[in-house]
UniProtKB/TrEMBL annotation:
It comes from Tepidimonas aquatica. SMART domains: CheW. GO terms for biological process: chemotaxis; signal transduction. Pfam families: CheW. InterPro entries: CheW, CheW-like_dom_sf, CheW-lke_dom. PROSITE patterns: CHEW. Gene3D superfamilies: CheA-289, Domain 4 (2.40.50.180), SH3 Domains (2.30.30.40). This is Chemotaxis protein CheW. The keyword DNA damage does not apply. The keyword Ribosomal protein does not apply.
């Protein structure tokens, strides 16, 4: 196989799968595109901002960059639990903006073949927002909810990005 053919087949293979960082919110396990993740940090109390939405915990100083921190449990309506030693902040780069999201714990990085990802079920309930769910993947006994973290973080109700 020539170098060009090998590179082309590698590109095709790369499009046939994607890598996801998996994390937990309560009993549910989620996955987000690993390419959006800048780093994972231990949780530290952010500086609260007056009149911020409930899901906006505040801001932290990350090496001179002021980073807004969102609690995904609150934003997604998950039951609230105490922050503990497993609680982490996933630092994301979304549309050129650095944002932190608090999750219960980080599991691992999984490479998922595209054919292993199923469409999110259609739901007519007004309490379930499936707009930010890109699919569902079964990994062994685990059910992984794949989330479009960029769309969620840049949605108007988050108040993080310019229109």
């Amino acid at each position: 196989m020539t170098a060009i053919a090998a590179a082309h087949s590698h590109d095709a293979a790369a499009r046939d799968s994607a890598e996801y960082l998996t994390f937990r919110l309560g009993a549910e396990e989620y996955g987000i595109d690993i390419l959006r993740v800048q780093e994972i940090r231990s949780y530290e109390n952010p500086t609260r901002i007056a009149n911020a939405p409930r899901h906006m915990l505040g801001v932290v100083n990350l090496r001179g960059v002021i980073v807004p921190v969102v609690d995904l449990r609150i934003k997604l309506g998950c039951p609230s639990v105490e922050y503990n030693g497993l609680t982490v902040v996933i630092v994301l780069n979304v549309k050129g903006r650095v944002v932190g999201v608090v999750v219960d714990s980080v599991s691992d990085v999984l490479e998922l073949p595209r054919d292993q990802i199923r469409a999110a079920p259609e739901m007519t309930s007004t309490t379930v927002d499936t707009a930010f769910i890109t699919g569902i993947a079964s990994v062994g006994e685990r059910m992984l909810i794949l989330m479009d973290i960029e769309a969620l973080m840049s949605s108007p109700d988050m108040g993080l990005m310019d229109a």
